[in-house]
Amino acid sequence: EPSRRLEVFRQKNIDPKKNAIDTLESYTAKYPNTDPFSKQSYLQLSAIYTMANDVENTKNALDRLNKYFKDSPEARTAWPRLAKSLVEFASTVTEPERKQSILREASRIYADMIRSENSNYHAYDFALAGESLIEAEDWKLAQDAFDMAIMKAGTNLTTVIARATIGKTTVLKEKGEYLTALDDIQNFFNNKKLSGMPIATNACMLAIDIGLKQGKIENDTQIRDRYYAAANDGISRLRGYWAKEPQWKRDTVEMMSADALLAQAACEESKGDAKKAASLRGKVAVALYSLINARKPVEALPEPAEGEDQSLKRGKTLEQFTPEELAILEEA
């Protein structure tokens, strides 16, 4: 019985990886497309070869999967899965030349996917490809992948559109096109469908990240004000999105707001605007006193649930305050 041959490598313990490859290659040679186990055999071969960083044999296994099972869901997702595996593997490689070689191969696979006339690829496949290409730092190809995702999504797949739109904005940020990225974030918030989705908090975080990092180093007063305004707007929107979240998470937003105002105050002081810096520190003091009055000073807030972002929690109410924030309270 053909399927019983798949159990052979499990019954031997001498070089199990090689034994598995030999067994699966022998099996697919004898039953390339006539047995229901053949399709899974190609997938298993590609997985084993990928783990061994044997790209050529991985591609060979997937070529055969495509040849014999072209219209199957497995064939549709196999190439993107390989490219994603290569990007993830590259992150563990320390030798620069080898790392770049692996990333180039991943980008080539994604490029073939984007140019392919294979209608079996879904909008979500392209969104995932774009996100993986961001990890690979291939900005142009990532942008193309997100554009394809949005085009394939049409008007119905709002989740994919939102994900791809945020992906495109992330690419702009990574390319240093910060003001254009902020314009895109504002357009995202202006779209009622997109801004009403849970993923909108990612757009808030993008605005906060861009605003604080670029505001700190921007010399032009008007542009600097725009960066900090974007950061504060992102925090304000995040406050709304998290209005029904656990208390510790809502308090985190208040601390983020104080941190942002303090960062802006320090920046303005370094630029010689002491009056504006003092005004911002005053706002921080008001916000922190409001938080203290709303919470017991040593109140232990509930721990984040399993699966929630553990990095956001900063401890009990007073323990959350940074030395700079405590100094502001002492001045007030």
Give me the secondary-structure category.
mainly alpha
Give the uncertain stretches in residue-range form.
Answer: none
Largest sheet: none
- Helix content class: over 70%
Q: Count the strands? A: 0
Could you say which overall geometry the principal axes of the C-alpha atoms support?
A: elongated
Average of pLDDT: 82
Order of helices and strands: HHHHHHHHHHHHHHH
What's the helix count? 15
The span between the termini is 83 Å
Cα radius of gyration in angstroms:
26 Å
Binned strand content: under 5%
Q: What features would you describe in this structure?
A:
It is a single chain. The protein is mainly alpha-helical. The mean pLDDT is 82.
Describe this structure in a few short sentences:
The chain is mainly α and 332 residues long. Helices cover 72% and strands 0% of the residues.
Layout: helices, strands, pairs:
Layout: H1 16-30, H2 36-51, H3 55-68, H4 73-90, H5 96-115, H6 123-135, H7 139-153, H8 158-174, H9 178-190, H10 192-195, H11 200-217, H12 221-241, H13 247-270, H14 274-294, H15 323-331
Helix pairs in contact: 1-2, 2-3, 2-4, 3-4, 4-5, 4-6, 5-7, 6-7, 6-8, 7-8, 8-9, 8-11, 9-11, 11-12, 11-13, 12-13, 13-14
